[in-house]
Amino acid sequence: MNTTILRKSVLGIAGLAFAGGVFAGPVTEAHAAPAVDAKAVAVVQADKPGVDRLIPHGVQGKQSHIDLGDEQTANVKAIIAATKKSGMDERAAVVAIATALQESKLENLGHLGARNDHDSQGLFQQRPSSGWGTVEQITDPEYSTMAFLKGLKQVDGWQDMPLTKAAQTVQVSAYPDHYAQWEKQAADLVAKHWNN
Hints:
The chain has nine helices and no strands. By secondary structure, it is mostly helical. The two termini are about 25 Å apart.
């Protein structure tokens, strides 16, 4: 978040709190609000990552959505688990899931014969001939996610890029702008499954 906006927001809230106290006068015990358990509030906030962390630049263009089956949901959870294992945050999971939505609709695809894009396989349509790993490796959701995230870590400033640019820098797709359409669904999936 922009520090100027953050500073203005904090000052604005402080000003409202001060003005409220001046105009309303001191709160007596009879009218005091019930105490709030700070731990409970923190747990509620931690359950759902904020939109500003998941979609810091807002979405680009029209968004697509597909209904997921059990296998696809299991792959979402595998991507999230691998992201955590790699030490990366929720935004990295959003980029990875949006990429897999574009590349395979979150299906762990094997060789598709004549419909195959060269030798692309797995969730991220990675290619053994391009050095992503063996067929067995790139069709393993944890391995393929870790390989994608390793590539993402090497992109300077990926955290500050629009999702489609970060994904494209790793994937080098013939359709670089297509990743953007999955950002909202990917963020929703991370918000839903990050703490499961």
